[in-house]
Amino acid sequence: MGTTERIRLLTTCCALVLATHAGTAQTLISDAHLYGASPRGFAMADAYCADENDVTSMYGNPGALGFLRNTSIVLTHQVEWTTQSAMEQVAVPYQLSRDVSLGISAVVARDGRLSGLDGTEFAFKSYGVDLGSSIRVIPTLTVGLLLGARKFTFADQTMTTGWVQTGVLYNPTPGITYGVSYRIRNSLLCVIAGSHASLEREPTWPGELEIGAAMTFPAHSGVPMVSLALTTSKNFPSIQRFNTKGGLEVYPVPFLALRLGYKVGSSVNVGRYGAGVKVGRLQMDIGIAPSAAEERSHIMSLSYSL
């Protein structure tokens, strides 16, 4: 959410809270988490609109399901440091036919707590499922669709929301991919006012358009030595919010990947880093977001190649 949107929504929420709870002047707003996670994409600052690494790449672009380099079951664990909430995710790819691919993911977030400015704590949790599909139009082009749904519980209130994401992935030659993705969401906000807590929807259905490119070298290698990714995104209906995200992955040895990412834009300038280790069919990945300018967190995953 951009600065202008946040100020507008904060003003609206304050007015509603003050009208309902006379004398309460303290309000804290926290965005609800909607999406699943890609550990590799997370470490590379979410620059994975043109990535087709494994099934979790569908969160960057659902068209990626038709070009996966790794058909792996991925188990993911993420911890958000401020609220100490934990997110667990399992994602599985499935090849329906030569030209149709699916991705299925289940997500549970638990044990999170938000504190009001008067010290009152409220627990929250959520769970949901995501279903992605990809169709190969021509040998070098796929189109995809991702549907996601979440049910949130915050204090004694519940609310259901979700989003739709479409994407196109173009692979003109081995080692180079281009992607375009558009996502529209019916988002939630957790609102705390004094000793009262409530769930509120955003007044609009925000959308996000991303355009990206990725390159691996050497192109025909099963384990590339270097991967580069670049994505630029624009949020709607916000006029000012945009972000450019870049990621670098280097394999100093065939079984070890080192990753760096940086995100710069109108709302945030942050860096991330991570690594991955592969032994046989098993791979472990970790990504860390250390900057206080965003929600500080770490993410780990264990994947098994099918």
Give an overview of the whole structure.
This protein has one domain: Porin (Beta Barrel). The chain contains two helices and 17 strands. The protein has helices at 3-20, 39-43, and strands at residues 27-31, 72-80, 85-95, 100-115, 121-138, 141-154, 157-173, 176-186, 188-193, 196-201, 207-217, 226-236, 242-253, 256-265, 269-279, 282-289, 297-305. The strands form two sheets. Strands 2-3-4-5-6-7-8-11-12-13-14-15-16-17 form a 14-stranded antiparallel β-barrel. The chain has a three-stranded antiparallel beta sheet with strand order 1-9-10, with helices on one face. It starts with a helix and ends with a strand. Mean pLDDT is 86; it is low at 1-26.
Compose a concise summary of this entry:
With 306 residues, the chain is mostly beta strands.
Topology:
Elements: H1 3-20, E1 27-31, H2 39-43, E2 72-80, E3 85-95, E4 100-115, E5 121-138, E6 141-154, E7 157-173, E8 176-186, E9 188-193, E10 196-201, E11 207-217, E12 226-236, E13 242-253, E14 256-265, E15 269-279, E16 282-289, E17 297-305
Antiparallel strand pairs: 1-9, 2-3, 2-17, 3-4, 4-5, 5-6, 6-7, 7-8, 8-11, 9-10, 11-12, 12-13, 13-14, 14-15, 15-16, 16-17
